[in-house]
């Protein structure tokens, strides 16, 4: 498929989400490894419900992108800004890499930086937050690598089986973000 290249990195690029990848995303959403990390393990996601969700992701309160591998134009995940508040200039970021073979290769960090660049330098946001879980060490590590700082925890707020985990809140401010592709284009 021919995807739009909204924000381009070295390993990946971001393209606006549409319903073209409904089947793939529905499979990821039902994959236990993905669903546990996104907090969607109890959701009943069908192809139809996934299609509707993808069609409504880019509304006036959010911006969603497919994460696409640069070398073969394969969709490997989703990165999004949700609960965008233009009055207070903040948003919540969410992201996942669907296939385990594409994780731990730096693609998630690059996609995070591209999304932060969009949020700070295209939408003029001041604060972007992420919510994850204490067991999701790869996400916490990737966020710290991109400049996020932990701002708090909601203790024992998620229970899987007999295990209780904290919800971890991290954020980054626009003046802490250093990896702007948008500013490089403007300063050519």
Automatic annotation (TrEMBL):
Keyword Transferase: yes
Superkingdom to which the source organism belongs: Bacteria
InterPro entries: Acyl_CoA_acyltransferase, GNAT_dom
GO molecular function: acyltransferase activity, transferring groups other than amino-acyl groups
Domain N-acetyltransferase: 12-175
tRNA processing is among the record's keywords: no
Keywords for the protein's UniProt record, in alphabetical order: Transferase
Record CDD domains: NAT_SF
PROSITE patterns on file: GNAT
UniProt-recorded name of the protein: N-acetyltransferase
The species this protein was found in: Clostridium tagluense
């Amino acid at each position: 498929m021919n995807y739009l290249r909204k924000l381009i990195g070295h390993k990946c690029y971001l393209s606006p989400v549409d319903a073209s990848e409904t089947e793939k995303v529905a499979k990821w959403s039902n994959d236990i490894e993905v669903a546990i990390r996104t907090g969607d393990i109890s959701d009943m996601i069908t192809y139809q419900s996934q299609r509707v969700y993808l069609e409504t992701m880019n509304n006036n309160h959010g911006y969603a992108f497919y994460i696409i591998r640069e070398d073969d134009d394969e969709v490997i995940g989703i990165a999004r800004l949700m609960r965008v508040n233009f009055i207070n200039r903040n948003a919540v970021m969410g992201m996942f890499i669907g296939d385990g073979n594409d994780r731990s290769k730096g693609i998630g960090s690059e996609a995070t930086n591209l999304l932060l660049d969009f949020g700070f330098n295209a939408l003029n946001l001041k604060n972007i937050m992420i919510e994850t879980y204490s067991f999701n060490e790869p996400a916490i590590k990737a966020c710290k690598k991109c400049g996020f700082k932990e701002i708090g925890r909601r203790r024992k707020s998620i229970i899987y089986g007999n295990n209780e985990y904290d919800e971890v809140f991290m954020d980054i401010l626009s003046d802490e973000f250093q990896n702007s592709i948008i500013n490089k284009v403007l300063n050519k």
